[in-house]
Amino acid sequence: MNRKAQAIVLFLLGGAVLRAGSTDLYLRYVKAGLRPLLLASGVVLMAAAVATVWYERRTRPTGEEVREGRDGRGGGEGGHAHREPRVSWLLVLPLFALILVAPPALGSYTAMHTGTALQRPWGFPTLPAGDPLPLNVADYAGRAVYDHGRSLEHRRVRITGFVALDGHGAPYLVRMALNCCAADAQPVKIGLTGRVPAVLEPDTWLQVVGTYTRKRTRDPVGGGAIPYLEVSRSRPVPAPRDPYDESWNG
């Protein structure tokens, strides 16, 4: 592709990045704290595209521009340079896909083919009052496994996540833990027991209320510990604005 075509692709890329960063679409790709850098990157890409076109028009002789526009060929030796292959414009298709299509967040398929990413917390701060107590998946799982449920005894908790089913149909409540971007997202899983709905669809977002149980299992992928929650009630809920959980790594 010639420089003008490269500038067009660069401008479209910057526009796509700006669009994603100015809406909640960027949360499908990177963690929330990276939004300012994403917006700045979009501005830089678009500015670079404009500067490329300006520099190209300023440095290229006027007669060469007219000749190239007339015969559709580049300005090689003797005017015999060949036209760039049109297939190179296929590079633009992923950009239009980013602009026009909002990809779904990683869900149950990724969760059940990836080992749990549960990590030992730095500590276990005293839980606030509340009944039921709102907790995220990683906080409950960390306390259940590494604190052996001591801080969860005699407490009802409320947790939200999406449903994933293993090969035997056993249900798990999952959130994808995020370090930087969706490419490094890993699941944290909680097994569900007790009054679990008879019919559950994978990727359905569910809010459950329940209590700690000593029951746990090993993740078939990687062998990590998966704690269980004794469910007393549950209800489907809309997907959250930010589908990824960043709390596990601060």
Description:
The chain is an alpha/beta fold and 250 residues long. 31% of the residues lie in helices and 22% in strands. The chain has helices spanning 3-22, 35-59, 62-71, 93-100, 108-112, 137-146; strands at 133-134, 156-165, 171-177, 186-194, 205-218, 225-236, 244-245. The chain has a five-stranded mixed beta barrel with strand order 2-3-4-6-5. The longest helix has 25 residues, at 35-59. This is TIGR03943 family protein.
Give the amount of beta strand, in percent. 15-25%
How would you name the oligomeric state of the polypeptide chains in this document? single chain
N-C termini distance: 44 Å
Mean pLDDT metric: 82
Low-pLDDT ranges: 74-78
Give the topology string: H per helix, E per strand. HHHHHEHEEEEEE
Total count of helical runs of at least 4 residues: 6
**Proportion in helices:** 25-40%
- Alpha-carbon Rg, integer: 26 Å
Shape: elongated
**Beta-strand segment tally:** 7
Strand order of the largest sheet: 2-3-4-6-5
Task: Provide keyphrases for this structure.
22% strand; 250 residues; alpha/beta; transmembrane; transmembrane helix; 7 strands
